[in-house]
What does this fold into?
Amino acid sequence: MRVAVVALGKIGLPLAAQFADAGAEVVGVDTNPRTVDLVNAATEPFPGEAQLAEKLARLVPAGRLQATTSYAQAIPGADAVVVVVPLFVDDATWQPDFTWMESATRSLAEHLTPGTLVSYETTLPVGTTRTRWKPLIEEVSGLREGTDFHLVFSPERVLTGRVFADLRRYPKLVGGLSDAGTARAVELYSQLLAFDERPDLPRANGVWDMGTAEAAEMAKLAETTYRDVNIGLANQFAVFADRAGIDIYRVIEACNSQPYSHLHRPGIAVGGHCIPVYPRLYLSTDPDATVVRAARQHNAGMPGYAVERAAEVLGDLTGLRAVVLGAAYRGRVKETAFSGVFATVETLAARGARVTVHDPMYADAELTGLGWEPYHLGEEVDLAIVQADHPQYADLAPSDLPGVRLLYDGRAVTDPARWAGVPRLTVGGGA
It folds into this structure.
């Protein structure tokens, strides 16, 4: 089996490695020559993905996996083309920006050969596979979907850093534009993936036929939007708990002690490529989803709420030395996509604070390149705000932040026992 994977990013490259490891001949196409060169040298283009380095070291020299910048080399003759090109959302309008995906779709369609299965794994608004990609591929290729090629949607459901484990853990959802296309996709993914036993599921773990592309598209949007809405609810509870002097973490622990409550944890920000983005993709086709909109807006406002709480304690922030601890959007991940660091730094600076940024995963030059002044533990500071739950921050003490007058722990990751004598706040007033 020959498989082409379009876009070798933090999801696409592990997918390509998984497919090659399962026995397929895989060609990955990417527009970044550096990424292509590194993959062909069996070197990770990005750190932190468990098992990826080992798989590249084994599969690339064996000729099972290669990369190219040429669609003409990757697409013709492929049994399947798997598309994992990023989809962006305009921050102002909340509308999807299909620029990169349309370019990639045109390029693959120019070289598409009859008999190919095309599977989109990038999360999409409901209806996109049928109403946008089908006519575009048919127009450019001159081929007819359902006769000359099949088109399906099969969303990735993995987290960076643990892609291979998640591929085994979660059912693979597939929805086509026809029964024949769906059957082809079920056969493909059944050959390329292996699954853990999951007695907790209503049916056997494996490749699940969703019936239509639209159902598969909605399933991915719904499962991720649920998380954003749940976090938004937890954050609203936390804001009330702050006013009422209640420890929201004890409340959540109590609520979740019975099986019908699954409250998430509140926090200073919701970041990453998925949770802040996919609710907006859903809203692009369901603008009347007021619950979804309210949750997204509330979560987006949490960095500003954290700074406001700090100002309630310290007063005017003008001239104060403030450090944001954590550039990454979450602990253990070297990625700033939609990280709360941006809004936190911007809000602090707007109030006149002198802002620095610390992150154990980033070198000074990298932080400077992102537009921030690096901070080093041991330097004088007035205010510290924990933005990412890196494990290194669990052991922070006032001695690490000389002169600190307030710690605002936006992730409730620090040890309150270490902060006796120094004001320490969390989102929701808990330990």
Residues 224 and 274 are 7 Å apart (CA to CA). The chain has a mean pLDDT of 97. DSSP finds 15 helices and 15 strands in the chain. Residues 213-244 form the longest helix (32 residues).
